[in-house]
Write a structure and sequence with these properties.
alpha/beta; Rossmann fold; Alpha-Beta Plaits; 3 domains; 6-stranded parallel beta sheet
Length: 445
Amino acid sequence: MRVIVIGAGEVGRSIAANLADSNEVVVVERDPEIVEELTYSLDVLSIAGDGTSLDVLEDADVEDADIVIASTDNDETNLVACGTAKTVSDAFTIARVKKTNLLDTWRRAKGAFGVDFMVGSDLLTAHAIVQIAGLPGAHDADVFAGGAVRMAEFEIDAESPIAGETIQEADRFESLTFAAIFREGEVTIPRGDTQIRAADRLVVIGSPESVQDFATQLYPAEARNGAEEIVIVGGSDIGFQAARIFEEHGLSPRLIEQDPDRARELAEELPKTTVMQSDATDTEFLSREHVGDSDLLISTLENDQKNLLVSLLAERQGVDRTVTVVESPDYIDLFEAVGVDIAINPREETAEEITRFTREGEAENVAMLESDLAEVVEFEVDRDSLLVGQTIQDAMADLPECVVVGAITRDGTHITPRGDTRVEAGDHVVVFLATEVLDDVLEKL
């Protein structure tokens, strides 16, 4: 498949890297220094130029492209690039946008702007925030098989009830698979005698009930209190969308916005949300409004430094858990190291969604973990799959060690995979695997 990626920022670079192994990828980027760097770092063809220019797209042989992905940081540029590509090509066009109103317009008339598939980064980020917020202690979470399977990643601290236990000792849940451990930047596939250590990041896959029960065991205090008292800082589109989704889940968050006009607008659009007009770095205000008694504080300001400051002030006030939006990927590890519980990068969420969509046919759902070190993939098993006709234990002998079958659903029913489990054609299987072996494994499965 020939794929043209327009824009080589974090999103474009991540997409190109994920697709380069099994596709012919062309990257169009304005900055010639980035083009030169990509030539040496990725197995792609890099072209210096403006992706909205027909001449540049023709240089990239857009007429022969199967997919054109416009992933720059400018919404209008992405729309124009897709529209330009459509004038000379039948390629499937994908546009990344921040503005949710553009996404709403496209949804009302699919194909508008010359875009076949549109990804709204702000709305994606808001959904990611809400999903993680509903699972005590989770650093990442996703659902598969129409909601019948859930994946979550938890960091194990020294006080955790399972720190020091083996996987066999910690495995007290019938419908749960301990899929992997991220330890010191590497992936470990745990066995029964693998010991769980403090600072490990543990990935589990199972039924939603079992994953929720596991989270409750790890973080009983958070689970006992729930996440009913929620404070959102910043009336950005991400903040607004998160509040709206929380309202849909029957919750009534509080939202702090400094600009009086924006605060008034939010108050009118969010009937179940208490909107407070104030500066969230004002410690007297935070104390007066008992922000420290909240279960969860989400900072969605459009400045990374302010988001960090607000989160640290909230921690000092006594907030149980903090989530912050981080625009710069270089800050993610730093934010979590200095005390922010969860840092979410909208660009990572967008790259994952676009990559997920381009892999449809190979996989029905994809979640990337630890900056794409590993992935959780859902696919429907056909009759030619290696899994059909033998037990999982026998099938695994023909696959790399970094592959784990995490869950199976059959006719919508969750099945916990064990060594003697047999997979049938038509089953949906959720697999954890290292990204480096993804293409080879999917060919067999």
